[in-house]
């Protein structure tokens, strides 16, 4: 197939992990006889430095035209003045809204090698296979915000409409159908009006349109504990923007390293935005030691969700899993004998090329 993929390396370790993703996409194209056009553009701090805009119009245009977008990471100390008018993260928030990617998918499946680095007892991690579906373009992050009374009072409005909840609930249910058919909806319905709306819409959509899916509602404060006590008892976890942001970072601890978790942000169309869950890691940027696997696994999600290439997606996931099995580990996972970012990326590409 022919596809155009826009690559947004961004800041810090972003360009380092993106270089490996590019090589992997080229390897997939060669191995499976596809024609991928890889088109790079600026975002975040790199874009502020070049154009004073964290999401320049040229980047928006390239992203809107593409079949899918792959992002490294944005941000870093150089642009982190809290009083600055333009900030790297604004570029990412605006891109998500522009592309209309309202559902953020984060699979968490701890690999046995990485699980050694997780602070939880190994037996609690057995059988853990979670898929978070976080609403991404509504709630407090996108509502009206401001200051009153000479800056002494601040507010962030959390607002959700029925249609916003319906569409992300349907997405979660469709994904649950390909898995263990269970949804845990997380809210704070005992206190928040937005949560009461979510609870009633989720209940209606799932019972009327998806009678084959089992579901439950769990309060977010209780969920923070259940995730650590019995993570294997959950399948798809559906939640709003702010709770999803916090819970998915908590769940990343189950996987042992930030460097292993991919994410996909999708909307109604085929296109989507794919990125590792980690940030730009300024503390290790430029040293060639960043773990590229989260970005390579994001490539797998891109192949699956935007290009419909399931066999290719699985081949990438298998190659990364085999790299972990074979002990091809960057420094976050192995203090001794660690490989470089490039060596890890190359190992995965070679395994993919050799795969039957
Ligand atoms: P971070 O994820 O960048 O780093 C947290 C810790 O994890 C660091 O010690 C880092 O070295 C390590 N780490 C992260 N990714 C790694 C990888 N691939 N391999 C090995 N180690 C890795 O989070 P932070 O330090 O809180 O934020 C740094 C910057 O990134 C900030 O400017 C923040 O705003 C930004 N950020 C961006 C995104 C994004 O682009 N989506 C997400 C989170 C944070």
Descriptors:
binds nicotinamide-adenine-dinucleotide; 13 helices; 43% helix; Isopropylmalate Dehydrogenase; alpha/beta; 2 domains; two-stranded antiparallel sheet; 10-stranded mixed β-sheet; 356 residues
List the helices and strands and how they pair.
Blueprint: E1 2-10, H1 14-32, E2 35-40, H2 44-51, H3 57-65, E3 68-73, H4 88-99, E4 103-108, H5 112-115, H6 122-125, E5 130-135, E6 145-148, E7 153-156, H7 162-177, E8 182-187, H8 193-209, E9 214-219, H9 220-229, E10 236-239, H10 241-252, E11 262-266, E12 272-276, H11 293-305, H12 310-325, H13 341-354
Helix pairs in contact: 1-11, 1-13, 2-4, 7-8, 9-10, 11-12, 12-13
Nicotinamide-adenine-dinucleotide is lined by residues 13, 73-76, 80, 89, 92, 258-259, 275, 278-284, 290-291, 294, 332.
Strand line-up in the sheet with most strands: 2-1-3-12-11-4-5-10-8-9
Radius of gyration: 20 Å
Q: How much strand content do the residues show?
A: 15-25%
Element string (H = helix, E = strand):
EHEHHEHEHHEEEHEHEHEHEEHHH
List of distinct ligands in this structure = nicotinamide-adenine-dinucleotide
Please tell me the total number of domains: 2
Alpha carbon gap, first and last residue: 20 Å
Largest sheet descriptor:
10 strands, mixed
Using the 3D structure, state the CATH architecture of the largest domain.
3-Layer(aba) Sandwich
CATH fold label of the largest domain: Isopropylmalate Dehydrogenase
Helix- and strand-based class?
alpha/beta
Low-confidence blocks of residues: none
């Amino acid at each position: 197939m022919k596809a155009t993929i826009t690559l947004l390396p961004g800041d810090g370790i972003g360009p380092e992990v993106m270089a490996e993703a590019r090589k992997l996409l080229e390897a997939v194209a060669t191995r499976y006889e596809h024609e991928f056009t890889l088109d790079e553009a600026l975002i975040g701090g790199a874009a502020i430095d070049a154009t004073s805009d964290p999401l320049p119009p040229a980047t928006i245009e390239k992203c809107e035209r593409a079949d899918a977008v792959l992002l490294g990471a944005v941000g870093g100390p150089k642009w982190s003045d809290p009083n600055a008018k333009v900030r790297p993260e604004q570029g990412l928030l605006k891109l998500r809204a522009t592309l209309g990617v309202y559902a953020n998918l984060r699979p968490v499946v701890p690999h046995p090698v990485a699980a050694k680095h997780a602070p939880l007892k190994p037996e609690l991690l057995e059988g853990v296979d979670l898929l978070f579906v976080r609403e991404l373009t509504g709630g407090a992050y996108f509502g009206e915000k401001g200051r009153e009374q000479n800056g002494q009072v601040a507010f962030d409005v959390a607002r959700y409409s029925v249609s916003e909840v319906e569409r992300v609930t349907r997405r979660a249910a469709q994904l649950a159908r390909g898995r263990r058919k269970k949804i845990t909806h997380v809210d704070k319905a005992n206190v928040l009006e937005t949560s009461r709306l979510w609870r009633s819409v989720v209940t209606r959509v799932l019972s009327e349109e998806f009678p084959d899916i089992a579901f439950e509602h769990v309060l977010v404060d209780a969920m923070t504990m259940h995730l650590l006590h019995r993570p294997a008892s959950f399948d798809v976890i559906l939640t709003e923007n702010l709770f999803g942001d916090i819970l998915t970072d908590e769940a990343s601890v189950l996987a042992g390293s930030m460097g292993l978790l991919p994410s996909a942000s999708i909307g109604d169309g085929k296109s989507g935005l794919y990125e590792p869950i980690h940030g730009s890691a300024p503390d290790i940027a430029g040293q060639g030691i960043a773990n590229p696997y989260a970005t390579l696994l994001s490539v797998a999600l891109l192949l699956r969700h935007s290009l419909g290439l399931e066999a290719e997606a699985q081949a990438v996931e298998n190659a990364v899993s085999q790299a972990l099995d074979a002990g091809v580990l960057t420094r976050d996972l192995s203090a001794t004998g660690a490989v470089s970012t490039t060596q890890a990326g190359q190992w995965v590409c070679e395994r993919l090329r050799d795969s039957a």
